[in-house]
Amino acid sequence: MSLASLDQERRKREGGESIPWGRWGMRGIALSYLFVLLIIPLVVIFQDGLSQGLGGLWHQVTLPIAWASLKLTLWTSAVMTLINSVMGTMTAYVLVRYNFPGKSVLNSIIDLPLAIPTLVTGVMLVILFGPQEALGAWAQRTLGLSIIFAPPGIILALLFITFPFVVRAVQPVLLSLDRAQEDAAATLGASAWPIFRRVTLPPLVLPLMTGALLSFARAIGEFGAIVIVAGNIPFKSQTAAVYVLGEVESENRLGASAVSIVMIAIAFGLIIVVDLLQARRNQGVA
Amino acid sequence: MKPAERENTAKPVGRAGVWIRRVLITIVMAYVGFLILAPIVALAIGAFSKGFGAILSALSQPDVIHAFGVTLLISLVVVVVQMIFGTIVAWVMVRDRFPGRKLINGLIDMPFALSPVVVGYMLLLLFGRNGLLAPVLTAFNIRVVFALPGMILATLFVTLPFMIRELIPMLEAFGVQQEQAAATLGANGWQTFWRVTLPALRWGFIYGVTLTFARALGEFGAVLVVGGGVQGRTETATLYIYRALEERQYVGAYSAALLLGLFSLALVMGTDLLRRRERT
């Protein structure tokens, strides 16, 4: 580390003098806000769910209906993450490497899902794929596939909502890659797929994993779109979030808290992994 | 187009390259068209199926207007609170060093992955009828659950990361030199903050507000659990859409969904347009 950056680091630490109420005041306000808004509710739910010990929690989580809802949530999210990783990377590649009419329109469409309330996403998908609608009836008749009130609808909703995550994670890294290596490989006679796999893909793995894990984390908790698209059929289309809602409404506190705690643990675990991956990436760059 | 982008796109090599290019572009276009555009078009068609008049009369029902009013009110309060506290939290995360900072950095992203239903339920456990704070609330006669305060708290929880995550990189890039220069020239703490720090963070604020607002407008699970969706009282726009669907008032549900979607879209696209105009 150079002297200048050491100096900067020191100033950063002491930078508080120019700020109203001083450093301690700011720190106090920030930490109190996070404490009241985030930490107290989390502590309360853990206390509630563990009120009958780990055994009580485990019993609630392994009830067949609860267990089935967690499994459905996890496998639909995993399928979505897989599809999203492939299609997201492909979309980023096409956006970075090719010029074609409609490219800038495509680029702005990617972010649309971030701006659309997920409940509205659910309504859209029901209109398009509902059993009484044209496309839904067609899928039912010719493919024997029900989409709405079934896992395919859940996966479609999750794909819609998380589409930007992988694309926006991979795109900037792909943009910053030097094309010289790919061109060299091509000149030496390598064909397109080996070039992509051996030269282009390796630096994309870290951002791709970040984007994929983010979409998975986001999918585990998704509620608005799924409650519309999947309905609430136990063992068939009831996800964990919808199960928690049912238990809250029927005042089964322990059941609601137990499944909530499992969801919180998964969410927090994934967030930590994403943070670590991002830290590693930043180190790689510096 | 940025120069870096131009260098990155090259003429496809050979005949195979031309084909790969065509196939990839077609697949991506088809995927985006099927996954993103088709549902949006379907909603517009669904809403307009009974004509424009039906949309207008569905949206001018008093309970629909009230629901959109509640949504706007909650969103505005949340945006203001998040601007104030988000700025403070971001500043502390960038400029301050204290034990546990890394853990808190992770906690800030938590609401992003946590189910809104769980968020609403946590608030019920705290403020509900049998909640931890129930004695205090009844003593002072404060209603949090099934009322606006609870819904605002829920939306605050859910939107927590947006403002902070927009501001942190801006604060990091901005550095302390300019603030120190202002201080050297005799500006006091507030003057430095208002005249130097805030203007430099302008775009962080604009994006933070946009994302917070859009997320607040669309919040559903948390306000459903905590607010109960009492028609004409705690019913927000999303809760109205949900009820209308269950009551099979499809034109009402589709019209409200279209209006809410368009509102969020206009918000986000407007910000993008503003940004593009400033760049050129």
Q: Separation of termini of chain A?
A: 11 Å
Mean pLDDT of chain A: 87
- Helical content of chain B stands at over 70%
CATH superfamily of chain A: MetI-like
Oligomeric state of the chains in view: heterodimer
- Distance from N terminus to C terminus of chain B (CA atoms, Å) equals 11 Å
CATH architecture of the largest domain in chain B: Orthogonal Bundle
Largest sheet of chain B: none
The gyration radius over C-alpha positions of chain B equals 23 Å
The tally of structural domains of chain A comes to 1
How many runs of DSSP E, i.e. beta strands of chain A?
0
Brief characterization of the structure:
Chain A has 286 residues and is an all-alpha fold.
Which key phrases capture this entry?
heterodimer, A: 286 residues, mainly alpha, 15 helices, 79% helix, B: 280 residues, MetI-like fold, 0% strand
Task: Describe the protein.
- The complex is a heterodimer of chains A (286) and B (280).
- Chain A has 286 residues and is mostly helical.
- Chain A has a single domain, classed as MetI-like fold (Orthogonal Bundle).
- Chain A is 79% helix and 0% strand.
- In chain A, α7 runs parallel beside α13, α9 runs antiparallel to α13 and α12 runs antiparallel to α15.
- The N and C termini of chain A lie close together (11 Å).
- In chain A, 42% of the residues are buried.
- Chain B is mainly α and 280 residues long.
- Chain B has two domains: 48 residues, no CATH class; 228 residues, MetI-like fold (Orthogonal Bundle), CATH 1.10.3720.10.
- Chain B has 14 helices and no strands.
- Classes of the chains: A mainly alpha (286), B mainly alpha (280).
